[in-house]
Amino acid sequence: MLSKILERRILKKSEFLLKEGQVAKHIAVVESGMLRQFYYKNGHEITEHFACEGDGLCSLLSLFRQEKSK
């Protein structure tokens, strides 16, 4: 059932899945490689999570509240 609604997207190294200020509209699943989830606090990058192959990730607050991401 999921295969009917999944959309494959290939990111290049250092490409953003979601940028600061954008509103999340999707949940991602890592097929290959890794993704790092981070935000800025007082001018510093704070890593919140690393997603490896098979892991899912999204900006929960942005997705469910439809607010701009940090």
Distance between the termini: 32 Å
Strand order of the largest sheet: 1-4
Q: How would you describe the shape?
A: globular
Q: Report the radius of gyration as a whole number of Å.
A: 13 Å
The main β sheet shows up as: 2 strands, antiparallel
Q: Tell me the fraction of residues in β-strands, as a range.
A: 25-35%
- Compressed to H and E, one letter per element, the order equals EEEEH
The number of E-state strands comes to 4
Q: SS-based structural class?
A: mainly beta
Poorly predicted ranges: none
Residue share in helices? under 10%
- Overall pLDDT confidence: 90
Instruction: Compute the number of helices.
Output: 1
Could you list some keywords that capture this structure?
globular, mainly beta, 70 residues
Outline the structure in words.
- The chain is mainly beta.
- It has one helix at residues 60-65, and strands spanning 28-29, 35-41, 44-51, 56-57.
- 3% of the residues are buried.
- The mean pLDDT is 90.
Short description:
Helix content is 9%, strand content 27%. It contains one helix and four strands; from the N terminus they run ββββα.
Break the fold down into its secondary structure elements and pairings:
Elements (H helix, E strand, L loop, with lengths): L27 E2 L5 E7 L2 E8 L4 E2 L2 H6 L5
Antiparallel strand pairs: 1-4, 2-3
